[in-house]
Specification:
The chain is mainly alpha-helical. It has helices at residues 43-48, 55-66, 68-77, 86-98, 100-112, 117-133, 184-187, 195-208, 218-235, 241-245, 249-257, 259-268, 277-280, 303-318, 324-329, 333-340; strands spanning 40-42, 141-145, 159-163.
Length: 345
């Protein structure tokens, strides 16, 4: 079984640092009676602690314990062998676990994450809200691992993976050495407070509300991303807006200050209904800034997603009777635009 499309470090759902303070007022339902209890399984610890002579027996045990995740990890993440090929697994894992880089990385992970208890508590609350809004959704397993800086939050058939080496903190000694593949404006956001937002964003985009096939023009992309961000508003408690969208505080301040100007610019450039993906993708992807806007490279990136978020918020303010599930079911982006009466603020 293959993984769903994996979120590599450069995938454009990416992360951000921020304070832990929510910056929009949300009226949430009482979910205290919803039966959800998230447990995070520590495969990273299992692999870090294994003795070479035990690899054969543990390979079999891990196939039973971790199921599809273990198969995906060996074949798609480490890319070494099918677990059924016990000889190759033993050969390659023996090499990997003896490497100094592997040992040092696992020590760093163990230091930052001696326990996942606080994240279990946060994810439990988040997925109670998920169950409230989407009762048919089956809560997956949550499994931590170390990937060698390849995958952050992959979604499998029955699990969400959490690559703890991609959440070591902005000051981690490992990230500066990776600048050719992971720019510092991205890796500075590989922080512990990103775990819960990035997990729920991955679940939203991959499991609950993947991008509709008819999403072609800029407005449609705005609304899709705006819906995802609004869902994060509803599902995450005490999480700042900059952390949700992946902005610095300065980026968020810039986007709010120039929101009306950015909206006017989108209109003047006739971008709303443009299907020129090569031109418009830059308004939805991770970057240090938006080259066409602002001075001295100070503008916020992902301005298409930001404007879409503000638009969806306006729509939901005007239509409070609309549930999150009903919002996702609205296929016509124009209906959201017109119903929001959004004018750039």
């Amino acid at each position: 079984m293959k993984l769903k499309p994996l979120q590599k470090y450069f995938f454009f759902l990416i992360v951000a640092i921020a304070s832990c303070r929510e910056t929009t007022t949300i009226k949430r339902p009482d979910v205290s009676n919803i039966n959800v209890q998230v447990h995070i399984e520590r495969f990273d610890q299992d692999l870090a602690q294994i003795n070479p002579e035990d690899i054969g027996s543990m390979n079999k045990a891990w196939q039973e314990r971790y199921g599809i995740f273990y198969s995906n990890y060996m074949q798609d993440i480490l890319q070494i062998a099918n677990p059924a090929d016990s000889i190759r697994v033993k050969e390659f894992l023996t090499q990997i676990i003896k490497q100094k880089d592997f040992v040092d990385l696992n020590k760093a992970v163990a230091k930052v994450y001696p326990s996942m208890e606080s994240y279990e508590k946060e994810l439990t609350q988040v997925f109670k809200y998920v169950k409230y809004y989407f009762p048919e959704y089956n809560i997956p397993r949550f499994i931590t691992y170390v990937s060698g800086f390849a995958y952050q939050t992959p979604i499998g058939e029955d699990y969400v993976g959490i690559g703890l080496d991609m959440f070591l903190g902005a000051e981690s000694e490992f990230y500066p050495a990776l600048v050719q593949s992971i720019p510092l404006y991205i890796s500075r956001r590989f922080t512990p407070e990103n775990i819960v937002p990035r997990v729920i964003e991955a679940v939203l985009r991959e499991d609950i509300y993947s991008i509709p096939d008819q999403t072609h023009n800029t407005l449609q992309h705005m609304i899709y991303n705006g819906k995802i961000m609004y869902a994060m508003d509803m599902l995450l408690e005490n999480v700042s807006d900059e952390l949700k969208i992946g902005y610095t505080k300065e980026h968020l301040a810039w986007a709010n200050k120039y929101q009306s100007d950015v909206w006017t610019w989108f209109l003047q450039e006739n971008l709303l209904y443009s299907t020129d993906h090569l031109r418009t993708q830059k308004y939805f992807t991770e970057a240090p800034f938006t080259p066409e806007l602002g001075e001295k490279n100070e503008s916020a990136p992902k301005l298409g997603s930001f404007i879409g978020w503000m638009m969806v918020r306006k729509y939901m303010e005007r239509h409070p009777e609309t549930s999150l599930k009903e919002l996702f079911a609205i296929e016509d982006a124009q209906k959201i635009l017109e119903g929001s009466k959004y004018k750039g603020k």
